[in-house]
Automatic annotation (TrEMBL):
The keyword Ribonucleoprotein does not apply. Keywords: Heme, Iron, Metal-binding, Monooxygenase, Oxidoreductase. Gene3D superfamilies: Cytochrome P450. It holds the Pfam family p450. Belongs to the cytochrome P450 family. This is Cytochrome P450. InterPro entries: Cyt_P450, Cyt_P450_CS, Cyt_P450_E_grp-I, Cyt_P450_sf. Its cofactor is heme.
Length: 352
C-alpha cells in the first residue's frame, strides 16, 4: 500500500466500516476510521491499546518516565535551537541518523546543558542543579535509553512542525483571499513589529489557519501505530493481544459527513468552533489523545503559528516561473509523516 496507505485505508473503510482488520502473515492490523471508533481506541480502551512498536525507521519506544521528561522539557521551553543540528541532519535519512547517532547525541547534550544552565531557575525540575546527562543517569536511564530519547525528540519534533508550515503556505498561496485576511489580522494586531509569542493569543484567524491545515494534512495521518497490550473487545469485535492499531485521522478530517465542504481549505470553520487540540473531540485530534497523545503539542502549537505568522508578515511570496497558484501540486505521500510530494518552492521578497 506504500505511499498511498492513508487513501487506500480510507477507501476500504467506506466498504468495510469504521473498524476493520487486515492480516499480513501473523500480523493483525486494526484500523479505526470514524470519531466513534477513534474514541474507543484512544479513550475507552486507551489502557489496553496504548503499547508501541519499536522499529528502526521510527524508534519511538518511550515509556511513562520518558513521556514525563519530554513534557517537562517542552514546558520549560528547553528544546534547543534546531538550526544547530542542520549541518548534521540536512539531507540525512533515518539510516543516516542511526549511523551518526553518537555524534548527534553528543552535540545535543552539549547544547542542552548550556540551555539548562541558563534556565535553572525551576527548582522543581528533575534536572535541579545537575547536568542534563548526569541527571538522567541518576534517574536510572541507561545510555541507550538516553540516545533513544534524544533521537525521538529530534525525529518527532522537527519533521512534523516544518511539514505543517509547508502545507499551510501552499494553501495560503492557493487561497489568496485567506492570505489577505491573515495579513490584515497581523497588520492590525502587530503593526510593523516582528511577530512574538505574546502576540499569538490575539490572532484567532492565524490559529484557525493552523487548525485547518492540521485537519487536511495531519503530519501523523494514521497517528503512530499503537499495539494492543492485551486482548480486548472493541465495538463488539475481539482485538487480539499484539495487534497493531491505526487511527485514520486523515480520513476523519476529510469526512464530508463531519465537515461541511470537507476538501475546501476554509479556516472560517474554526472561528466559532469549540474544536481544539486537547484531544477531547474525536472528530479532530491531530495530536492524538489519551496516554499516547503527542507530548510536544504545547510547543508545536506555538512554534507553527509563530513561524507561519513570521513568514506571512515579513515577506511577500511568489511562485517561480509561470506556475499559477491554482496549479500548485497538492499531492501528498505517506512516509510515516504526510509529506508534500512536490516540495513547495516560493520566492520571498521582504515587506516594508
Ligand atoms: C504540528 C506538530 C506536531 C503534530 C501534529 C504531532 C502529532 C503527533 C501524533 C499524532 C503523535 C502520535 C499520537 C498517537 O500515536 O496516539 C505524536 C507523538 C509524539 N510526538 Fe508529536 N506532533 C507534533 C510535534 C511534536 C514536537 C514539536 C515534539 C517534540 C518536542 C513531538 C514529540 C512527540 C513524541 C516524543 C511522540 C511519541 C509519544 C509516545 O509515543 O508516547 N511532537 N505526535
Amino acid at each position: 500500500m506504500g505511499r498511498q496507505l492513508h487513501y487506500i485505508l480510507a477507501n476500504l473503510a467506506r466498504i468495510h466500516g469504521p473498524l476493520m482488520s487486515l492480516r499480513s502473515g501473523k500480523q493483525i492490523t486494526i484500523i479505526a476510521s470514524s470519531p466513534d471508533a477513534a474514541r474507543e481506541v484512544l479513550k475507552t480502551h486507551d489502557r489496553d491499546l496504548s503499547g508501541r512498536y519499536i522499529t528502526n525507521a521510527l524508534p519511538l519506544g518511550i515509556g511513562k518516565e520518558f513521556r514525563m521528561l519530554i513534557v517537562e522539557i517542552v514546558e520549560l521551553g528547553m528544546i534547543p535551537d534546531l538550526s544547530d543540528f542542520y549541518p548534521i541532519l540536512t539531507g540525512m535519512d533515518f539510516q543516516g541518523i542511526q549511523k551518526k547517532r553518537d555524534e548527534i547525541v553528543k552535540n545535543f547534550i552539549t547544547i542542552w546543558d548550556d540551555i539548562i544552565k541558563e534556565r535553572r531557575k525551576q527548582e522543581s525540575s528533575i534536572f535541579g542543579q545537575r547536568d542534563f546527562l548526569d541527571a538522567l543517569i541518576k534517574e536510572g536511564f541507561t545510555n541507550d535509553q538516553i540516545s533513544q530519547l534524544i533521537l525521538d525528540l529530534l525525529l518527532a519534533g522537527t519533521d512534523s512542525s516544518s511539514m505543517v508550515t509547508e502545507w499551510a503556505m501552499a494553501e495560503l498561496m492557493r487561497n489568496q483571499d485567506v492570505l489577505h485576511k491573515l495579513r490584515d489580522e497581523l497588520k492590525r494586531e502587530i503593526g510593523t513589529e516582528m511577530v512574538k509569542e505574546s502576540h499569538l493569543a490575539h490572532l484567532p484567524y492565524l490559529e484557525a489557519c493552523v487548525k485547518e491545515t492540521l485537519r487536511l494534512y495531519p503530519p501523523g495521518p494514521l497517528l503512530i501505530p499503537h499495539r494492543a497490550l492485551q486482548t480486548c473487545q472493541v465495538m463488539g469485535y475481539t482485538i487480539p493481544k499484539d495487534s497493531k492499531i491505526l487511527v485514520n485521522m486523515w480520513a476523519i478530517g476529510r469526512d464530508p459527513s463531519i465537515f461541511n465542504d470537507s476538501l475546501r481549505f476554509n479556516p472560517e470553520r474554526f472561528l466559532d468552533s469549540s474544536l481544539d487540540f486537547k484531544g477531547t473531540n474525536f472528530a479532530y485530534t491531530p495530536f492524538g489523545a489519551g496516554r499516547r497523545v503527542c507530548p510536544g503539542q504545547p510547543l508545536a502549537t506555538k512554534q507553527v503559528p509563530l513561524i507561519l505568522a513570521s513568514l506571512v508578515h515579513s515577506f511577500d511570496w511568489f511562485l517561480p516561473g509561470s506556475i499559477k497558484s491554482t496549479e500548485l501540486d497538492m499531492n501528498d505521500h505517506f512516509a510515516i509523516t504526510l509529506k508534500k510530494k512536490q516540495p513547495l518552492q516560493l520566492i520571498p521578497k521582504g515587506r516594508k
